Amino acid sequence: MEHTANDTLDFHETTEESLKLEVASQWQLMWWKFRKHKLAVISGIIVILFYVVALFCEFFSPTVPTTYLDVYATAPPQRLRLFLDGKWFPHVTGYRGERDPVSFRKTWEIDYSTYIPVGLFVHGDPYKLWGLIPGDLHLIGPKNPGDPFYLMGADMIGRDVFGRLIYSSRISLTVGLVGMVISLSFGILLGGISGLVGGAVDNIIQRIIEILMSIPTLPVWLSLAAVVPIDWPALRVYFMISIILSLISWTGMARVVRSKFLALREEDFVMAAMLDGCSRGRLIMRHMLPSFLSHIIASITLWIPGLILGETALSFLGLGLRPPVVSWGVMLQDTQKVAVIARYPWLLAPGGAVFIIVLTLNFLGDGLRDAADPY
Amino acid sequence: MVATHTTQQVAPELTMRSDDHLLEVNHLKMYFPITQGLFSRVVGYTKAADDVNFYIRKGETLGLVGESGCGKTTVGRCIVRAYEPTSGEILYRDPDGGVTDLAALEGKEIQPYRKDIRMIFQDPYSSLNPRMTVFQVISEALRVNNLASGSEMRDRVEYLLQRVGLRPEYIQRYPHAFSGGERQRIGIARSLVTNPKLVVCDEAVSGLDVSIRAQILNLLEELQDDFDLTYLFISHDLSVIRHICDRVVVMYVGKIVEVASGLDVYVDPKHPYTEALMSSVPVSNPRARDKGTRILLEGEVADPSNPPSGCYFHPRCRYAQQLCREQAPPLKDLGNEHYSACHFAEELSLAGVRMV
Amino acid sequence: MADNRVLLEVRDLKVHFFTDEGVVKAVDGVDLTIESGKTLCLVGESGCGKSVACRAFLGIVQRPGRIVSGEILFHPDGNGATIDIAAMDPKGAEIRQIRGREISMIFQEPMTSLSPMYTVGNQIIENIVLHTRDSKEIARERTIQLLDQVGIPRPDRLVDEYPFRLSGGMRQRAMIAMALSCNPTMLIADEPTTALDVTTQAQIIDLILDLQHEYGMAVLFITHDLGVVAELADDVAVMYLGKVVERAPVDTIFNDPKHPYTQSLLRSIPKIAMRREELDPIKGMVPNPFRRPDGCTFHPRCPKAMEVCRHVVPSVTQLDPNHLVRCLLYESQEGRPDESAPAGRN
Amino acid sequence: MWKYLLRRSAYALFTVWVISLISFAVIQLPPGDYVSDLVNDLRAQAGEVSPEWEQRMREIYGFDDPFLVQYFKWMRNILTKGQFGYSFYYKRDAVEMITERLPMSFALSFLSTMFVWVVALPIGFYSAVHKYSIADYFASFMGFFGMAIPNFLLALIVLYLTYKYMGQAVIGLFSAEYASAAWSWGKLLDLMKHVWVPMVIIGISSTAGLIRTMRANLLDELNKPYVETARAKGLSETRLLIKYPLRHALNPFVSTLGWMLPSLVSGETIVSMVLNLPTSGPILYRALIQQDQYVAAGFILMLSTLTVVGTFISDLLLAWVDPRIRLQQ
Fold it and tell me: How far apart are CA D165 and CA D153, in angstroms?
C-alpha cells in the first residue's frame, strides 16, 4: 500500500489553462481579476494620464501660469476645430470685443469669422521643467505667439484657465500623495503597534483614535490652517497643509492596519511560520505583509480623493494654499461670488477636474479592493 | 473506600522517569488572563490547562481527546511552544540523550527545538499562506534555520512531496491550485521537512471528508514507520483516536481525567466522564443499536474561568457523592499504565464502548 | 401511529446552478421516496448535492440555483391528495403553507441559524402564529411547552432569552422546538449534529428519535457520518455527484452494500472495535464540478470499473423490493429497466 | 446596561474635555493676538499707540496669563456662567452669537441626517435585493457621482443654475422679508421652502456612502443561515427581508451616525459659507480669519460637542436595537 503520486493524483487534471492559474503569483492573479473590472481599468488609465500631465505640466500647458493678457480678461472659452472648409487646419475661433453700454465693462464674444491657427509642439512661453531644465516647447498652442488661446476661457485678469488647470494638477494631485504618505506612516506605525502589542497599549491608542474621529474635521482643519502664517514661503505652506490634512485621516488608516493585523495574527499560516522558527521581523515582512500590501494599496487609492477634496475645500476658503501657488482650490477662490459664476461659469472648470479625478480614483480603488484578495 | 496507599501522583522529577520517554509534561498550567477596562486590568483567568501531567513514549502515538473547550489544543500549542506556559515543565529528550525543559526556554533558546517538534494544523485552507508557492511554504523551516539551501533544499522538498503523495512537479504551484486533502498533504510535508522527532497533529483530519480522511490516516501511519515519528494526536473524533493511537489521554475542563492504553480507555474506562464519552460514540453498525444503555450527559461543559468546586465533572456525573463536591481528585495510578482522576475509580464498574 | 405510507416521492429531480463559469449540476436526477413515520438518511461526501436536494424539497434553493426538471410529489394526508412542490412558485403562498407547517427543517449551524436580534421565543412564536393564526399568548404557551419537551431547562425563562446566550446544543434544541411547533408530517435535518460535540450529538440524536416516536413524523436526515446513520436510519440513500447511487434499508447498506461507492465508503471509516485495521480509502477525490466524468460519474475512482462504465450512464436496478442500486455491474442480471420508472416504490 | 450607559457617558464627557483643550489650544497657536491686530489697525489709522495702553488692553483681556490659567478661566466661565467670552470683532458676547447660530447648524445637520437616512435606506435595500439589476447599477453610479463631487462645488453649481434659470440664486435660509423677523408660522414655512437645497447638498456625499454601506451589509446578511431558517418557516419574502436581514443591517446603519456626523458638520460649515446661511459656518470662518479667539473656540467646542453627543446617542441607539451589545457588557 505504497502511496505513489500516480495513485492519489488521478484527478488533479492539469490543463494548459489551469497550469497558468496554478503557478500564478498573487500579483498576477490580482491583475487578472482587476482586468475584468472594465470601469476600473479605464479609470486607472485616466488617473495615470492625470499624473503624467501633472508630472510634465510645463510641457502640457500652453502657457505658464503667470502669463496674463489683461485685455482678454474674462474671455470665454474658444472652440477648437480641426478642419476649415474640409481641409486640415487646426484652429480656434477668435474674439470680438464689445463694451457694455451701461457698465462700460469690456466683454468678449466668440467671433466665428476669425481664426487663430493652432499647432502641436509649438514654441511659446519659456519655462524650466521641474525648475531645472529650460525649454519653451508646448504640446499645443497658437502658431503665432501672442494670439489669444483660451481653451477654457480666461480668468478675471486674463490668464489662461486651461494652462493654470494643468499647472494646478501638480499641486493638487501631490498634496494628496504627500498627505497620504504621512498618514500612512502614522497609521501603519500606530495601527501596527496596536495590533501587535495589544492589551493596554492597544486600548489607549484605540480610545485616542475614537476621540480624534469624533471631532468634525473641517473646523479643526480651518483653525489649524488659519494658524499658518501669511508670510511663509509656498513650499512650507504646501507641506504644512499636507500635514494638517493627514493629521485627521491617519486614524482611519490605523484602524485598517490594526484590524488586518489582528485578523492575520489568527491565521494558522502565521502560527505555522512562527513554528518554522521565523523571527518576528521575518514573520511580519515575509508572511504578513504580502497579504497586507494589496489591501493597503486599495485603501490608499480610496483615501487620496478625500485628501484632494480637503485641499480643494481649504484653498477655496482661502485658508489653504495661497496665490501665487496654483491649485484647483486656489483657482476656485475666484468663484466664491454668485455674480462671478453667473457671468463666467467656465471658472468652475477646476471643479470638473476635481470631480473627474475623485470619481476615477474611487472606481480604481473599488476595482483594486475587489482584486486585493484574489483567492 | 479509597485505596490511598496505592495513590501515587505522577511525580514532578526533573529527569525523565523512563528512558523510553520522549516527552514528559509535568504540572503544566496555561492560564489566559481575562482583562477589563482601559488599562486591561486582569480580573480573572481562563484555566485552559490546569496541572496537566502525561508522557509520550518514543515512537508511539498518544491521543488527546475531549469535548471542545477542554484544553486539548492549548496543551498541544504549549508543547510546540506557540504559547508560553504559565508554569510547569515540558521535558524533552534530545536525539543525543540530553533532557531539556522546553517550558523554561526563552526567546532564541527555543529555536533549535522547533525543528524537532512540529505541528500539523486542522484547517488545510488557513494553514497554508495563499501567497507562497508550495516550495516556499515547505522550505521555510529549512531556510530560516539554515538547514539546507540551493539544490539540496529543492531536492528535499521534492522528495517530501513525493512521499506525501504529490507530484514533485507541483513545487512551483500556489496552494489555491489544490483541494483540501492535497493541502493537508502539503501541510504534512511542511512538518516533516526538518526531520522532526515529535509531530503534534491538532485535529489534523477533522476537516476532511470520509474518504480523504482515510487516505490521510493511512499516510500518517505509513510516515510514522518510515520516518520514525512520535505523534501527539489531538482529536475530538473517538473513532479516529481509536484507530491511530497506542495510548489515550482524556481531558475535561483543563484537567486530565484519564490516561490509559487505547484499548483500556474504550473497553474498561475508569472515569465516569470517559464512560459517558464512549457511550456517545455512534457505532457504525445498525445491529448494535441499543438506545437503552446509552449514558447521556446532563448539563453543559463547565466554564474554565469559573469551574465548579471539587471534581469539575461532579455536576454532570451520575455517580457524584459529597466527596466529589468538596475535593478535587488527584490523578491516580491504577496499575498497568492506567491513570484516573476519580475518587471512586477502583470501585465503580463502568461500561465501555459498545462494540459489536 | 406510523402507517408507512409514502409521504414524499421525488422523481428525477434536477437542480442546476447557473454560474458565470458554467453550469453545476448539483442534483442531477434524484429519485427518492420517504415514508411517513420513518427515517431516511441521505449520505454522501461534501459536494454530492445532498444539501441542495433537501432545500429543493422545500422550494428554497437560492439563485443561481434552480429546479430544472423533475417532480417532488407530496402526499400530506391519507386521502390521496398530491402536491407537486417542484411545480410551485417558490415565492408563492401555497408553498409557504407547506414550509414550517407540513415540512420543517433544521440546519447545520445552530450558532447562526437563529437570528441574534430576536429572542428564541419570538422566533418560535412567529412560526406558530404564521401557520395556526393562534393568538400570541396561546403560541407562547405552546412555545414554552415545546421548549420543555426538547429538554431545555427552565423554559419559561429561556423563552425570553437571546440565542447567543445559549450553548450550541441548546440552540439546536430550540431549532428543533421551532421545527416541531406546527406538528409537521416531515422533518428535514441537514447535518444537525456536525457542528456539535459527540456528547451533544448523542443527546440530539436521542431527542430526534424520541420526538419522532411521539409525533410520528417522517425524518429526512442528511449526514456524512456513517456512525450517525447506523444509529438512527430506517432507510439509507447514498448520493454521489448529484445522483442517488444506492438505496436500501439500513441493515442492508451496512451488511450487504452493492454499489462500489457504498462499499468503499464503509471501508474508509475507522471502526471503533479495532486499532489500526487497514483502511481502504477511495482513491482520488471528488472531481471538479464543471468537469464531471462521462458515463458513470464514479468510474474513475471505482475499484470495479469496467470499460463500459466510461461511456454508459447506469440506470436504476432493483435488486429486491427495497434495494435499488445504480451500477452497471448489476444491470446485466436484470436487463435494463425503463429509465423513467419511478424508483423506490414499494 | 446601566453600567454600559455610565461608562459610555463618562467616556463622552472625557472626549468633550479633550476637545475643549484642543480647541482652546488651537486658537492660541497663531503668533500675536487680537490686541496686536488691533494695535496694528490703530497704528495704520491714527498713527501712534502707547505701549502702556497696549499693555493695559492685554491685562483686561488676560492675554498675558499662562495658557492653563487662560484655559481655566475660560472653562470656568462656560461652566458656571454659561459665558464663552467676548467677540472682539463683532463687539458682542460670544454666547449670544452661539445661541443665535448653533441651533440653525444643529437643525440643518439633523435634517441632513434625516435626509441621508430616508434616501439611503430604501435605495440601499432595493439595490441589495435586486443585485445587478439596472436600478442597482444606476444607484451605484449615482453613489459614486455623489461621492466625487465636493459639496461646496455642488453648492456653487446650484447657485449658478438657479441664478441662470430662475433669475435668482438660492442663498440663505429665508426670504428677505423673514430674514430678521421673529419666529412665526410664516417664517417656519419660509424656512421649509429654502432648507431643502442646503440639506440635499450637505447630505449628498454621505448618502452616497451610506447607500454603498447599506448594500454591502445587506448582501452579507442575505446569505446568513438565519435567513434560510426564516424562509424554511414559510414567511413571505417581503416580511422575511424586513424582519431579518434589514433589521440586522440596521445596526451598522445606526452606528454610521457616528462617522457621518463629523462629516455632516464639516459639510454644513463649508456649504453655509458658500450659500451664506445663517449658521455657525460663516461666523466661525470670520472668527478664525480675524483671530477672534473666544468666538472661534466657542464654536469649535460647541460643534464638536454636538457631534460627540450625536455619536453618544448613536451608541445608545445601537445598544437599544442590538441585544448583543446590550446584554454582553
Answer: 18
